[in-house]
Amino acid sequence: MIIAFFEDRSPIWFSALASWVYPRLAVERSRFDSAFFLSKADQIVWRTLFWAGIFSAFFLFFQQKNAFQENFNAFWNLRIPKRRVRYFTILFFGLSFIEVWRWHENLEAMQAYLFFYQAIWFLKILSIPFPNLLIINFLYLIFSLACLFCIFNFRPFCSSLVAVLLLVFFQALHQGFAKTDHAYSTWLYAGIFMPFLLWESQKANEKHEVAAWAWQLIRVAICTAYLQAGLEKIWISGSSWASADTFRAYLFMFDTPLGIWVSESAWLCHLLPLGTLFFQLFFCSILFFRQLAYIFLPLGVLFHIGVYLLFGIGGYVTAWYIVYLFFINWEVVEGKIQMYFYICGSKEGK
Description:
mainly alpha, two-stranded antiparallel ribbon
């Protein structure tokens, strides 16, 4: 089928499916031969087998190991204090309110490049065109009000749903210019599940604890993003991605001052790509061993700052590590804060 596609004799349904799954195919087919895309088809097979094996092993353990089943149930039956949901609602939607105003500038600038715009799949299905500036301003007003309603706890579930739907819509517009931007991936995952967390909080009424399965889903989604990033490097390039020569080639490609300096160090060109793979593949371990958060969260901040300094991608502050707030052991933090105020109060009493 793939070879037939390159020879313009494949069935219409296959051509439509290939273009839908791989929107840049019309451009990429002029850059690469059919062997390249045959290797991508093999990737689909191997990845399907990999995840099928993972899920099969999970169900096997779940059926046969009582301890595994108990730990799994305990993970999803976690309950967190209601006040923590309020803190995170204020924090998440407050930061969203601030950050999305930068998107407004981008969408305004994109009005000059609408010739290149191609709506991504769900906007195409809904027949939603790229909005004009008046509609964008109106939607930003609605988004801002929804965020403020969440912050002040006014109909939080409905307000968060409106805010998140607009958050996804704005990002969908950004993705419509044949280039995928991952800068807000984990932020969007967190946003998608926030309304469910607020729904559980609303159901809890005056109770002090909230069912936190949505909180856990946010953490799983963030970890999966890192795991997929690491696996992608291995699936696409094998061990060659972590070689010093490959890493040095990337440094020369982006040509930053720190990158050029690092390229002159043989041991750094070996250590940094291996460290990247280790970090991305094993970040998910903090789901099972909470103490590892003290290692992986600081590593993550250093990793993203390093990516910015070496390749000019992202910035000193990025949504990818702001969501680490969902992994902090807040019981310990709250305990230390209470102890601090207790000690301060004791000194004043003396």
